[in-house]
Description:
Helicase, Ruva Protein, domain 3, five-stranded parallel β-sheet, 19 helices, about 15% strand
Amino acid sequence: MNKANILTIEDDPLQRKLIKENLEEEKFIVFEAATGKEALNIIAESPIDIAIVDYKLESETGIEVIKQMLEKNPLITPIMVTAFSNVENAVEALKMGAYDYIVKPIDFEKFLLVIERALERQRLQKEVLSLRSSLEEKFSSKNFVFSSPAMNEVMRMISKASKSNATVLISGETGTGKDLVAKTIHFSSVRKNEPYLAVNIPSLPETLIESELFGAEKGSFTGAHERKLGKFEAAAGGTLFLDEIGDLPFQMQVKLLRFLQEKEFYRLGSSTPKKSDVRIIAATNRNLEKLIEEENFRPDLYYRLNVIPIHVPPLRKRREDIPPLVDHFIRKYAEKEKKTIEEISAEAMNLLLHYSFPGNIRELENFIERAIVFCDGNHITSADLPLFLKEKKEEQLEQEGDSLTDEVRRLEIRKIKKALIENNGIKSKAAKALGITERMLSYKMKTYGLSFD
Length: 453
């Protein structure tokens, strides 16, 4: 059994001594108090894990002491000690926050088992608090990496939504980080200590969506051998994130609308309404207004969802966010791969800045993770990036513009590529064939983002 600090609150000196000696034999660190006041003083000065509280103290009840104690430190686990005739009072103590109770005369073998279970429960509570704290840190708004005015507006909307309980509709292309926006809103809100559940609508078979969201009674469908708790109940008090809401079947849209209007729903197979205090955040990569025109999405549901609209723009429309995101991903994956890589070459960054990123931030992150794996030096070069990025840029340079300058650029690119191919990539020979110096050839290749692999 791990060492722990235990406070015994007992006004009978002999009983207090007996408890202390038995606990110290098990290597616990034991503190003693005869009154609630003494106990509170000890709690203020020492980290107490378990408090053994006698129900009947000289001038107060153990229930009063437990209440005061938990107000000072809610992480303390109280255990009530009571006479057989006071079991009803012990049950009252459980309602007040006591973990368990022991009846006098104390059976110390059972007593130690109760303490062991209490310490295990406390350990789990601390793990939950630690996890919750790390989630709050991970999904804090300060972890967003950007420099664009467009994302600054997104952050302003996140801040407003976090202070509200209103329904939020997040729109944006796949890979823009809509799920991160939803989590940030939840973990910055008053609901942050309550559940956060996410449901990806397209991933659910259409026949199971209703039972997954609203639950089902035993026998309500084939295979329903017991009552099933739906996400609306499981997320009570917290947030339910409905990802890709545009894929919600039309008949299910009616049930979601009813919930948003009345805050109640029906389990599948039940005629009894259930209520749940859950906040809805929905997201979509589809144009819901177009779906409404096509009569594939209910306009009344759209208006219910679109109370706080947040649009996350694609990466190609906020290219100024690419450099800070690249730096962020380099640090992240260099640490993961245990490599010393701190920067990216200007040529490689130029390739990224000229790419359209149909997969948005998710695609950029994949590029950098791949580059870190392939990189053998201390900085990422264009050779560490996918080859098609160079080809895309060359195509773009060849196709852009109709001016005389653009025509000259396209002609130079074609001539340089042809000379390099005909001379097997030997720059000195290619430069001679073009009638320019090798230094000029290198300059033009760098300017146009050309290479010969």
